[in-house]
Amino acid sequence: MTDRILVLNGPNLGRLGSREPDVYGSADLESLRAALTEDAARAAGATGGADTSTPVSIDLRQTDDESELIHWLHEAVDTRTPVILNPAAFTHYSYGLRDAAAQLHTADIPLVEVHISNPHARERFRHTSVISGVATGVIAGFGFGSYRLALHYLLTR
What we know:
By secondary structure, this protein is of the alpha/beta class. The chain is built from five helices and five strands, in the order βααβαβαββα. It has a five-stranded parallel beta sheet, with helices on both faces. The longest helix has 24 residues, at 29-52.
């Protein structure tokens, strides 16, 4: 089991809580960090007790910069760290991000693509993901629950 999970978020997700709450909800990234940290701590307690198990560290990051997101994926490969990735708008066209994500796939490091909304229920241009083909799995449409389901998978695989 890993001691850290990277939770990477792409463009505009730093505006969660105020950006299109009808689509993305009213909670912000700090609320997401708190929920995932709590889930990781709860899982640690359930799997080994307080004496033998420590929670997995949730390293949640957000950037509007494609290059920074790519560098974070390279870091995940180099450190063999599992990733939960919400590529946001980069989902649909960033071949550079896709190629970085493919390195995780090749190295057999899990990468779960997540989306707060269901891209297939939205505008047609959102229906295609260049990331999905190299992701371990894709979870979409459950709000922050998408991240929590991805975390559960990574903690129990």
